[in-house]
Amino acid sequence: MSMSSARRNALIAASLALPIVAGGWILQERATRDGARLFDQVLSLVSDRFVDTVGTASLYEKAAKGLIDQLNDPYSELLSPKAAERFSATSTGRYGGVGMQIEKQQENIVVVRVFPNTPAERAGIVEGDRIAVVDTMSTRGWSTQQVSDVLLGTPGTKVRARFSRPGVAQPIDHQLTRAIINVPAVPYALMLDGKIGYLPLLTFNESASREVAAAADRLMKQGARGIIVDVRDNPGGILEQALSISDAFLNSGQEIASVRGRDGATQKFQAQGRNRFPAIPLVVMVNGYSASASEIVAGSLQDHDRALVVGTTSYGKGLVQSVFPLEGGYSLKLTTAKWFTPSGRSIQKDRTPARPGTLPAGVAARAPQSDIDETPDSLEQESVKKNRPTFRSDAGRIVYGGGGITPDVIVPEDTISTVEQDFARALAPKGAIVRAALYDMALTLKGKITPDIQPKPEWREEFLRRLEKDSVAVNPKQFQAATALVDRWITHQVIRQSFGDSTLFRRTLAEDAQMQKALELIRKGQTQQDLFTLARASIK
User: Fold this and answer.
1) Is it true that 94-182 and 190-414+514-538 share their CATH fold?
2) Is 195 a catalytic residue?
3) Do strands 137-138 and 130-134 pair parallel, antiparallel, or not at all (unpaired)?
4) 67, 90, 368, 373: which one has the fewest Cβ atoms less than 10 Å from its Cβ?
5) Cβ 514 vs Cβ 285: under 8 Å
6) What are 235-291's pLDDT values in tens digits?
7) pLDDT for residue 505 is more than 50
8) The CATH number fitting domain 190-414+514-538, selected from 3.40.190.10, 3.90.226.10, 1.20.1250.20, 2.60.40.10
């Protein structure tokens, strides 16, 4: 075939294909136009003819939310103006507020934590105070969200609140000036055994990377020769902070993570050379509640052989949400891409409905909650790795895919006995009342105990009395069989209330199988490579 004939045939083929392509575009355009016309017709009829008057603006908002619901994506949502403002505040960790954490306990809105150096602390508000009135409005019947919406506001503005305090007859009135509140991402950092540093990272707010670096610096100045970073139960937060934290432990140019969107394009995020802690052995702890930003940190450090990961497989939230501001103060939070670790592992895990299983002691010790059965991967063993796809770290170590970050050393949480599980599940529907009883007991004992206090039988009796007073049915046989669990609930709450989270952590360290394994390995390892060698030997 001559060149001219080939060119002519190509032109004929292209001219034949053009109507097909154009026709497809026209059909798609027509379908979109027909769909829009259908929606307008339905909206008009509902607005004009429905038996009850419905505002058009409300219908549009509900229709938009319905559209997002049809995506079947739990992470995409249309945020109302208030919800958008609240999302921005909670995701940054800085907001105009008064500096206290509140919780609904039965019919009361109770202050459960007062943050340091905040208007609430300066006003003398203490944990256990009940918020009765905010800005002249009674909080009776309100949710914690409703109270928070009133307390939050522009920094520098004022809000009035009336509190009741157990043991104080008269109400306590405060006028509080809202301020920027910095919620700590690293509430404390400790030296264990005088040579191992420990820092819990609770969230990825806008100060998380600074707090991690500052805590690690302090620990190293105190002589730490190994550091444990604990992101168990950390649901994530600002992804840029995850990149910055990973950067602090990686070399320049090393990939931290990549993002792939619908079009297949890949965006890679690389370390910028901060590597402030190049030599110190590192352990990262994860569990089934470590998600999103937590998984980026754990995955990047694992893939580059910079940290030994210990615990249970993380949650597996590897989807990227982009927030698009809309008119009227609305925002659209939309899933737009997926995260991958440097070795190519997808962080996203296919979700399956939670099913009741054996409750780990760590979950049960937090006191009953309505979702107490949702314990993803809490009981997995090393054998789960056999069914997962394999990838390679920089040094050729096997790392596992399949969603979430699978630890190098899997350590299931301690489990409680069957009778204790039955007792915990029986109380779960009344979790708010149970937590209120524990909280009130802790308040009455505050200032009367020492950190090494042992549980007392009379505490148990008082706890049972409080439950029965609030009409919580308790099976006597179950209660008697679960005395160790009840003692743990009470003791943990009493110690935290009296001495804080760091003291509670030290007190419960011996009960934490995952921490004990991490300490066992990092005590013996002089280098990061030592940790990997010890880990391999420990699971053979």
Assistant:
1) no
2) no
3) antiparallel
4) 67
5) yes
6) 998 889 999 999 999 999 999 999 999 888 899 999 997 789 988 999 999 999 999
7) yes
8) 3.90.226.10
pLDDT-based confidence at 90, cuts 50/70/90? low
Catalytic residue among 303, 305, 377, 440: 303
DSSP secondary structure string, 111-145? EEEE-TTSHHHHHT--TT-EEEEETTEE-TT--HH
- State both tokens at 217: 């610096």
Model confidence at 5: pLDDT above 60: no
Q: Which amino acid is at 329?
A: G
Question: Around Cβ 175, how many Cβ atoms within 10 Å?
Answer: 10
Return the amino acid letter for 190: L
Residue 317 falls in the annotated catalytic set: yes
pTM comes to 0.80
In the chain, where the domains are located:
3-54, 94-182, 190-414+514-538, 418-511
303 is catalytic: yes
The rounded distance, in Å, linking the Cα atoms of 373 and 351 is: 15
Residue 11 has pLDDT above 50, yes or no: no
CATH superfamily assigned to domain 94-182: PDZ domain (2.30.42.10)
Task: Single out the catalytic residue among 76, 209, 244, 292.
Answer: 292
